[in-house]
Amino acid sequence: MIPIAKPMVGEEELAQIKRAIESGYLTGGPVVKEFEEKLAKYCNYEHAIAVSSGTAALHAVVKAMGIKENDEVIVPDFTFIATANAARYAGAKPVFADINADYFTIDAENVEKLVTPKTKAIIPVSLYGQAYEVDALREVARKHGLKIISDNAQSIGAKWKNNHNYGDDAMILSFYPTKNMTTGEGGAILTDSDELAEQCMLWRNIGQKRPYEYMCAGFNYRMPSINAGMGIAQLEKTPSFTEARRKNAKMLNDLLANVPQVQTPKENPDAFHVYNQYTIKAENRDKLKEFLTAKQIGANVYYPHPLHSLSTFNVMADCPNTEKTALSVLSLPVHPALKEEEIRQVAEAVKAFYG
């Protein structure tokens, strides 16, 4: 079996987990602080606030920004549900925007058409490992006085114009096992704002500023020390993981270049793609997926339905690019553990399907 994802952990992670346990702090404490400092430096932000998941990061930051009932938050229609749920968790309404069909990321022109007096923020997603079109969206946000929360759950290490920092109000990360680096479970909030960082720290820790001094309702979203220890080891490996993913993606691009039924991923010239997923557009996608599965090649559809069409939302949205894209995308293995012969095996299987 060639899996779609494979976490790569070893002795370095075990050593850091042991160190975290021996620190005497099983949650919080010096190991979490060290992870936050190293993460902030790597991502080029002033602050990093470690939390229990990427979803927790989204929830904490929308609350810290004061987003509330009857507010509106614009999100892409083509992404994981947590992005839209973040607005709902705060009592706000998610408003679904279409995507750029080439890059799978939110379309700034469409976003601007959706802005109303109730709009308070935009949550763009750097989908599959590629930064959204940062400059265009930042201009929309500046024009209308909106906050930007970059959902980089799939994209640690991604860059826009050679910078990990997108000049947003906040960025969130996820460290779920399928991501480019993992802490087992975990997430983080990145920001350059001292005030927002302080608020996020309150919301992740039951609103507590000092023992029994509560500033807001807050949540229990703390990251355990053993997860942070694992993150320290993984963060050191992230550049090499990224290099391997990009190398594997290039090899797949070359091997599939002459398959007319397949469109390989397009990389925005201003972006640095880290390929959390290698996502093609394929003719007869569902049959291709079945064929690859029978060949024991992991291939998944992320995401088969526009968010607005899900029964939990079930609203109207004018997102033709999303609707068309959801019918053709298929993600192939690209993770760093792949061997060259396995990449060739994946490509040959795709070619074989199309004859």
Largest sheet: 7 strands, mixed
* CA radius of gyration: 20 Å
The CATH superfamily name of the largest domain is Type I PLP-dependent aspartate aminotransferase-like (Major domain)
Distance between the termini: 22 Å
Helix-strand topology string: HHEHEHEHEHEEEEHEEHEEEHHEH
Beta-strand content estimate: 15-25%
Helical amount among residues, as a percent range? Answer: 25-40%
Q: Determine the mean pLDDT.
A: 97
> What structural category do the secondary elements indicate?
alpha/beta
Give me the CATH architecture of the largest domain, please: 3-Layer(aba) Sandwich
Shape call: globular
Largest sheet, spatial ordering of strands: 1-8-7-5-4-2-3
CATH topology of the largest domain: Aspartate Aminotransferase, domain 2
Question: Could you name the CATH class of the largest domain?
Answer: Alpha Beta
Low-confidence stretches: none
Describe what you observe in this structure:
The mean pLDDT is 97. It contains eleven helices and 14 strands. With 355 residues, it is an alpha/beta fold.
What is the topological layout?
Layout: H1 11-22, H2 29-43, E1 47-51, H3 54-64, E2 72-76, H4 81-89, E3 93-97, H5 108-114, E4 119-122, H6 134-144, E5 147-151, E6 159-160, E7 170-174, E8 187-191, H7 194-204, E9 208-210, E10 213-214, H8 225-256, E11 262-263, E12 271-272, E13 278-282, H9 285-294, H10 320-325, E14 329-332, H11 340-353
Parallel strand pairs: 2-3, 2-4, 4-5, 5-7
Antiparallel strand pairs: 1-8, 6-12, 7-8, 9-10, 11-13, 13-14
Helix pairs in contact: 1-8, 2-8, 3-4, 3-7, 8-11
